[in-house]
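Q: Is it fine to ask for two folds in a single conversation?
A: Yes, each is treated on its own. Send the first.
Q: Here.
A: Result:
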Amino acid sequence: MSTDQARSAEGDAYEELESRVERIANVQNAAGVLRWDQEVVMPEGGTPARAKQLSTLSSVGHELLTADETGELLDELEGEDLSGERAAVVREVRRRYDRATSVPSELVEEISETTSNAHPVWKEAKEEDDFEAFAPTLEKLVELKREYANHIDPDADPYAVLFADYEPYLDLETAERVLERLRDELVPLIEAIEDGDADLATDAFSGTFADDDQEALARDALDALGYEWDRGRLDTAPHPFSSGTQFDARVTTRFDESDLLGSLTSTIHEFGHANYTLGLPDEGYATPLGESRDLTVHESQSRLWENHVGRSKAFWEYFLPTARERFPELEDVGPGEAYEAANQVYDDNLIRVEADELTYHLHIVIRFEIERDLISGDLDVEDVPEVWNDKYEEYLGVRPETDAEGCLQDIHWSHGSFGYFPTYSLGSVLAAQLYAAAEDELGDLSGDVRTGDFDRLNGWLRENVHRHGKRYTTPDLIEEATGEEYAADHFLEYAKGKYGELYDLDGY
């Protein structure tokens, strides 16, 4: 075969693979819209049909991915000298193909249907504070995910296999090392804060705030940050989330009349996710080049906007006048007081999504330890509430009085998402590393934030993170963006500096 013929064959094979990948992606994206609908607007009686719809789409996508034709195309292309982008697509599809072909389609379909049915069971159990009502479903999900992991790699730690579904290129040892370092260094900082006598303006946002007005303020915040409304929307959900593609990235939040800050920070957090999705290249849609680089990177974007921007003093100097327009009762609150209230460290917080920036990571450690033991078989489902409560008492000094505010508070296990939780802390660590790199290149960004100009920061993120899609593995993307290997140093420096100053701590 001549060189020209070889190139033509490579092109034909690649184009055929890309066409197949696009079909798979479109099936998955359609399922994503149905899941959004189920959590946001679907009537409660729609669950039985929706579970079957999602199960069918999951099965169709699985069959397309695992078809012999997919494997043959991958085998043909892996012997070729591909360009960087094409090599990345083949790498990503190969990884998905190898994992998917290890799992029987019947099991994939059963997991999909079980998780769809699990959502309303979890929701009702939480509302009724009845863990026993959810326990059989949780036990089935644990068994199914163990079976799933065993099919992929019977010789590996099953939890490591599940973790790799969400973060394939940072191994579980890295996650454990980061979590242990955060626990070891944040606990003394938190204890120093609790033992100190700093008097922060923790009641700056106390009061009752109507849901409609909170939604208006949430929309103000999205406007200010540059959310693309022609490719997104804002709705409410019991557990805030963002989903979609670069053409349609939707945000959800929730409102509590006594917690104005909670809805605002939640909205900014989900903006970070949607902003990343919207920043993916349009021309890469439905291929790995137009998909986000897994959950550590995705969470870094939400944490960067929520914490490094939305909880900064500069942000409150800019945004407080808008909040006062919506809520005149905030007229006497100054930017410094708003900043202190937004960054207070709680000594009695039980709910992860309402946790402060520091104790949040202990919430993650607790979930990580419990789900790791569930999957390994070292913890029985029936013992989860007691173990959960014991760990909260040990790590955070508080004990849940109900399962609704304890082990039923999160939606993730009803999705079968075991291995997901560590990525929250991994993403927070990366957020600090990326923000430090952006400031190294652009200079201090607080002046931009103070004037509501987010273009330079967002442009840097578009250039160094968003536009690459999945071209690079996570470690390579981090090094490309920051010039450094992934590490917790920047986050710990940021946390100790910020909270040491806020709480006037010696030695920080």
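Q: Second one now.
A: Result:
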Amino acid sequence: MPPDGATPWGFLPLLAVMLPVAGMVAALPLGARWAERLALALMPVGLLLALGTAVAVQAAGAPLWHALGHWAPPLGLALRADGLSAAMLLAAAVVIGATAVFARAQFGTPAGAPEARAAFAFWPLLLGIWGATNLALVANDLFTAYVALELLTFAAMPLVALDGRRETLAAALRYLMFALLGSVLYLLGAALLYGVAGTLDVVLLAGRVDGSLPVVVAAALMTAGLLAKTALLPLHLWLPPAHAGAPAAGSAVLSALVVKGSFVLLLRLWYGVLAGIPGPAAGQLLAALGAAAILLGSVAALAQPRLKLLVAYSTVAQIGYLFLMFPLMAAMPDTETAAKAWTGGILQAVSHALAKAAMFLAVGLMAARIGHDRLDGLAGAGRAAPVPLLTFGLAGLTLMGVPPSGGFAAKWLLLSAAIEGGQWWWALVILAGGLLTGGYVYRVLAAGLAGGGAGPPAPRAAAPEAIALGLAILSVLLGLVPLAAFGLVQVGRMDMLP
């Protein structure tokens, strides 16, 4: 950390957090119509801040720091944006902005129309999720990270039950129970670390903790808590009903971003606070859970009768890929193989965010056009909703890992790292997962392109369809970006190694 706790352009992470938080607070008393206008006005500003953060981190070749109130740790709190933060801030800004424009069709309030209760709640909640996600990405101490996780939970949970139906209320309560369990475990672990080291700052903790029993217990508790919030199998039971019951815009944000906040914090814990303490066996265990999620989640998706449940179980499966990087990083933390695994894992998180947001939005459009989301009644969707079906297919290419998509680049890096590291069994899991993903994507496309009369030919693509299609195209084009450009995500990674 710099002596004065600040770096040039270090205020950018602070602005990235304060912009949506201030927008959320201001939107609450404004009513649905003005809250919508405020949220939409903030989206391009937030995107510019995220882009500026990425450019500043890349140019500096080092993380950006900002000490709140100019009080540096351990007396004060600091925000830190490294390459991982910058990449995820940019992904969050793109997904939130696209979702906001998409949501106008359902939660917008035209001039002269009465303000709906759901619309009044949606816009502040969307801004709250954005602010909490950004705070989780740049928090540099474990308590601020905890606050971010709680804000994320209490902004995301109401989206699940926004329609007020009994089944969505039950799904929201299940989500809340798992989230609170994760919070309790995380807090217990953080308290143990504070007792050992006398600080919760990530950088300071890295130099003060060792492999003693309290530290190992704290690591296990915090890891379990973060896994519950990330919905890694077997702690995934809250995710399918929650994501399937939320409105399309809510499902897109939940799947693309909410589960990523806790995953990023897990990376901070393992490779920042506890760098070198969790051994290879712990990394193998996390990857084994990830492999089980990939295979079992994909099989469950193949068996689902409803489109939204299929996509929700697909999220369970795709989350599993994120954890294949852990054994590769644990075995060889300072090698080129580890750098590949790190880049592959972060690229998987970003490409999944774009593809899964596009897929949920497409499913919502198809269900609205056809009148239901049952796969057995999907025949003719290619005629009634051609753009959403195309969007689903393009997003599916990324999830399958078909070139030249971003998912292909991510999975290829993970596969290469597994082979180079002598852990070929993870390569087999990646290949099997791609084939199973192709199975459920083909199932939807085949049903939609089959003959039948799901409705009249669709009119010219409207703005929501263009937004969903744009996200899917971005997820594919991500694979065409030169690999050297992803050097951004390496900035700050070596600082976290012992």
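Q: Anything structural to flag on that second result?
A: Two points. The chain is about 70% helix and 0% strand. Strands lie at 64-67, 78-81.
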